[in-house]
Predict the 3D structure of the following.
Amino acid sequence: MRRLPHGYTNHTVGDGTVVDKTYAGPGARQRRARERLVLTRLRGRIPVPPVHRADELTLTLGFVPGVHGQELLDAGHAAAVLSACGAALRRIHIVHLNARTGAEDGRVLVHGDYGPNNVLLDPATFEVTAVLDWEFAHLGDPVEDLAWCEWIVRMHHPAHVGRLENFHAGYGSPAPPWPVRKAAMLARCRALEDFTQRWAPGGDGVRHWRQRITTTASWEE
Ligand SMILES: Nc1ncnc2c1ncn2[C@@H]1O[C@H](COP(=O)(O)OP(=O)(O)O)[C@@H](O)[C@H]1O
Ligand SMILES: [Mg+2]
């Protein structure tokens, strides 16, 4: 098994057939349980890896072929990748998990870490082969995922910010107003600052997220 690229929180290894994801950090057990539950419920409805086995801190998943969204984005395919990310996100947000989703409070299944960072695509067709990394999934406002995908592009792929129009076109709705998106980005950054603070109080991760909060707060539409 070799360590898989683009894992940012946990320890994820694979051999081309299966993937072992071992959860690290605060709430590791709950995040593993959450990811397992969502993957099981979404199987056959959204492209997600199959769950083969669940141990206390590890999930064994089927390996899904595809190229990581961030690699394809940097290879010059930003419009196609972001359009596919938008279309896949719409499918996620219209899933009815149980009687509570789609209820009149407007909450949907929020992925919780959505963006080209957690999507694999077929490099020939740009079809999404898998949406990965459901450990932060919850019921919430669709803007959370819309804003976070935008944040990933603004922070890590600033040359492609203009292609976010393809993301919203793929999703099929005009972008929510900028102040609402920016507030959602800042809320998520603060939640991640808090997560790193619980993991290693006063550590590099905390400083990193504080810096990112300052940067995000300075952005204009
Ligand atoms: N089922 C899978 N098939 C193929 N690659 C995977 C699979 N699961 C994870 N990966 C690869 O491992 C990386 C890290 O997995 P992920 O669930 O995103 O963990 P993390 O929470 O650490 O980001 C992914 O970005 C992807 O490149
Ligand atoms: Mg990930």
Q: What stands out?
A: The longest helix spans residues 178-199. The pocket of magnesium ion (ligand 2) is lined by residues 7-8, 117-118, 132-133 (CB under 6 Å). DSSP finds seven helices and ten strands in the chain.
